[in-house]
């Protein structure tokens, strides 16, 4: 089929000399996108000018395009170093589907295939080559690279080079050789998680020369965070799933047993769900992951084992049925939703038992890392119990700050959590009690004193005679504990030392003087009612569904699933959710209008245009 391109589509003939125009034309021609995401242009500019760079963007920020788009604008080969075979394959499939010549070399590629790849590189027909870190630094490979023209080197998951990072891989250390062998090519490092220390370590370890450091916002405004106490696990999970019928979702559990139980309960209730954990056999695991990526099943119930290597863009919700052990882990796992930039929900159901469970596991583990792990666990618990904007809390953890007062996309800012009206007085009561016990006790003890407990310990130390004893006697100890955690997470109190002794901070003293007011949540007992109220709210707070014919969207989603299964590729590689919604909104019935849909480049137009246009036409006729 010939391309039926309408007049307002940029053509190569229109390419002007400026770099930005070249990039924009390539973005439209191959990927069908009209706009760059934040920092993409700057990152691509570095590639075009050969300036080394370190690019930190959150998951879904669009890092791959930073090197892929320039690769079609530059002469020579783009080398991409990537740690996982499954990731490489998906990327190569996606590029091929966009009409960009890409290949990967790894242990499963035959000698014949390798020869063909080498040939296409020599003849200048290949734009991108994906390779694992251990393979790229083999002497024969380096010799080969030395003889050809390498345009740029992209290092994916670059934090793996740093022993300060959480995923250190020794084989990444060798990558320094690349800079020596391909001295003319710019080297560009990409990662989603990097503290400043890791960032500099990455640059040093790779031998980068005065690299441009591009660090994006860690915020993911399209994710809607909600945190609730867990009371009826399966019920709560089902309420969330039912908000997204037929859409893809991931449910994270702490243990394998919980994974199995949850998957069974959901399957029995008629959901298309499968388990995933490290104790299962490889065949099942690979099968389930593939079925998930082709949209043949909707839900994966998993432990932490499910993650690396998942770049499915249309995950509409991530549920944590237990509290993760750190905010980093939570950010990473919840961040697997909404990579396409469309809204997605992240629900976290926690209970005090989760904390104790992790604490036990950490205490059993290697002692050198224990302190750090316990601190991380504490931060995570404060996040759960906190009453601050969730987006703000996450970015602050990574050293950034959001400018707005309300994010409009978390349970706190959406005001789904009810606050108590006398928070100032309650906060003052708790803080005065901390002062009365001379800042020498932890939260449990302080809560007991406030509740008016006559426990032996309390009587023995004479704390039952304090003026603050029984000041909150109408409240349960658990509620007082929760409020205390909220005061900690809002910075009025801090926990000191191994025993987490409560101490007042400077803001705490201001609170005592009545100069500031904390935010304290209504006790958890009533959360069930609130939960079901908010559960019935429309989940789509953003405009992404505006004017979308939802029936048509469903039809197109089925068509996508069939095509993905036939071709054995992930569904989102055929088209992302955004493209499908755009189709169901614009309802194009000619190829000329179809190519205006976001995500439709020339190759996709040629490959899928007719079949989708026909399907839309049939729907309109019916
Ligand atoms: P990352 O590697 O940073 O996690 P990806 O490169 O996988 O993110 O991009 C996430 C999704 O966003 C992909 O589906 C990609 O096609 C899409 N995307 C990236 N850049 C743009 C853009 N400028 N416009 C629209 N979609 C984009
Ligand atoms: Zn918020």
- Please give the alpha-carbon distance between the first and last residues: 27 Å
Bound molecule types: adenosine-5'-diphosphate, zinc ion
Cα-atom Rg, whole angstroms? 27 Å
Identify the overall geometry: globular
Give the strand order of the largest sheet, numbering strands 1, 2, ... along the chain.
3-4-2-5-6-1-7
Percentage of residues assigned to helices:
40-55%
Low-confidence region ranges: 1-16, 525-542
- Strand residue content: 5-15%
Instruction: Provide mean pLDDT, rounded.
Output: 88
Observed structural traits:
binds zinc ion; 27 helices; single chain
Care to describe what's here?
Helix content is 45%, strand content 12%. It is built from 27 helices and 15 strands. The chain has a 7-stranded parallel sheet with strand order 3-4-2-5-6-1-7, sandwiched between helices. A 6-stranded parallel sheet has the order 8-13-12-9-11-10, sandwiched between helices. The radius of gyration is 27 Å and the shape is globular. The model is unreliable at 1-16 and 525-542 (pLDDT under 50). Bound molecules: adenosine-5'-diphosphate and zinc ion (ZN). Residues 33, 35-37, 40, 57, 59-65, 311, 313, 339-340, 576 line the site of adenosine-5'-diphosphate.
Please summarize what this structure is.
The protein is of the alpha/beta class. It is 45% helix and 12% strand.
SSE arrangement:
Elements: H1 19-31, H2 40-49, E1 53-56, H3 63-71, E2 77-81, H4 85-98, E3 102-105, H5 111-122, E4 128-131, H6 133-136, H7 139-147, E5 150-155, H8 176-181, E6 186-191, H9 196-206, E7 212-215, E8 223-229, H10 233-242, E9 248-252, H11 256-268, E10 273-276, H12 282-293, E11 299-302, E12 315-320, H13 327-334, E13 344-350, H14 352-364, H15 370-385, H16 390-397, H17 423-436, H18 443-451, H19 456-460, H20 477-489, E14 493-496, E15 501-504, H21 506-512, H22 527-535, H23 550-567, H24 571-574, H25 577-586, H26 591-594, H27 602-621
Parallel strand pairs: 1-6, 1-7, 2-4, 2-5, 3-4, 5-6, 8-13, 9-11, 9-12, 10-11, 12-13
Antiparallel strand pairs: 14-15
Helix pairs in contact: 2-3, 14-15, 15-20, 17-18, 18-20, 23-25, 23-27
The structure holds adenosine-5'-diphosphate (ADP) and zinc ion (ZN).
